[in-house]
């Protein structure tokens, strides 16, 4: 007999969780909208509910930091490339000017101007070699932004939607529980229906919460690997160009 009661209880919960009536949908949307309004206006929420998401909020802060800094890095690389091209052009023009003036001056100073001009022209050509690793660096950062970060952002948006649904369901259950009379069957049935809605919303939210935390951790590790690899390539190229310039000057 107890087995039949347990089966009946679970059947009721399944029926409540699958309740798709128009009234239920309207009530659910009402509490979701109220929760969204509370969040948008910055009103104080239940401190225990907020505290339960502390780890998630810390991950979201990290995600937004990665998102912001990668955009800043992409802009900085583009600006750096422009500055290198401008500097190389100016350096080359100065080198040509010194060489032309050195040819006209037959004194020792003229020879020094020629030598300096040649060194500046060579340096300007070597400086342009930095563009290749920088272009590659920029492409990798943009790929990282448009794939890895965008994918995580979509998951974060789905999670935020589920969090709103879950917290809205909690508000709904709190409202129902304040008017609950255990002796009235209809009120108990309504409470169980809302309770089932809370459980379903929490299940969906917890799944996406875990997905977000895992993706943010992976995103942070991927960014470190990207920066380590690309900056090492840039550093090697820069050292080679500087070495070539010093050898040319000393030679």
UniProtKB/TrEMBL annotation:
A GO biological-process term: regulation of transport
Task: Quote a single Gene Ontology cellular component term.
Answer: Golgi apparatus
Domain of life, per UniProt, equals Eukaryota
Indicate the segments forming the AH domain, all copies: 51-235
Q: Which InterPro entries does the record match to this protein?
A: AH/BAR_dom_sf, AH_dom, Islet_autoAg_Ica1/Ica1-like
Kindly list the GO molecular function terms attached to this UniProt entry: protein domain specific binding
What Gene3D superfamilies does the record point to?
Arfaptin homology (AH) domain/BAR domain (1.20.1270.60)
| One Pfam family hit | Arfaptin
Q: Which PROSITE patterns match?
A: AH (PS50870)
Q: Where are the transmembrane segments?
A: none
Q: Which PANTHER family match?
A: ISLET CELL AUTOANTIGEN 1 (PTHR10164:SF3)
- Put simply, this protein is called Islet cell autoantigen 1
User: Which species?
Assistant: Microcebus murinus
The top of its lineage is: Eukaryota, Metazoa, Chordata, Craniata, Vertebrata
């Amino acid at each position: 007999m107890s087995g039949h009661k347990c089966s009946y209880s679970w059947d009721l919960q399944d029926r409540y969780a699958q309740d798709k009536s128009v009234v239920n949908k309207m009530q659910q949307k009402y509490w979701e909208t109220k929760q969204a309004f509370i969040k948008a206006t910055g009103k104080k929420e239940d401190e225990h509910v907020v505290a339960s998401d502390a780890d998630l909020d810390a991950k979201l802060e990290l995600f937004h930091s990665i998102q912001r800094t990668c955009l800043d890095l992409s802009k900085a690389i583009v600006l750096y490339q422009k500055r290198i091209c401008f500097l190389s052009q100016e350096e080359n023009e100065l080198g040509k000017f010194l060489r032309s003036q050195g040819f006209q001056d037959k004194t020792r100073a003229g020879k020094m101007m020629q030598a300096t001009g040649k060194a500046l022209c060579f340096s300007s050509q070597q400086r342009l070699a930095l563009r290749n690793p920088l272009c590659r660096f920029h492409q990798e950062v943009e790929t990282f932004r448009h794939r890895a970060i965008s994918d995580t952002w979509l998951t974060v948006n789905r999670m935020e939607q589920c969090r709103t649904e879950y917290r809205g369901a909690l508000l709904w259950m709190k409202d129902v529980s304040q008017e609950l009379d255990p002796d009235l069957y209809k009120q108990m049935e309504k409470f169980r229906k809302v309770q089932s809605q809370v459980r379903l919303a929490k299940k969906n939210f917890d799944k996406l919460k875990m997905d977000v935390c895992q993706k943010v951790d992976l995103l942070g590790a991927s960014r470190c690997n990207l920066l380590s690899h690309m900056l090492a390539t840039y550093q090697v190229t820069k050292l080679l160009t500087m070495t070539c310039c010093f050898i040319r000057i000393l030679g």
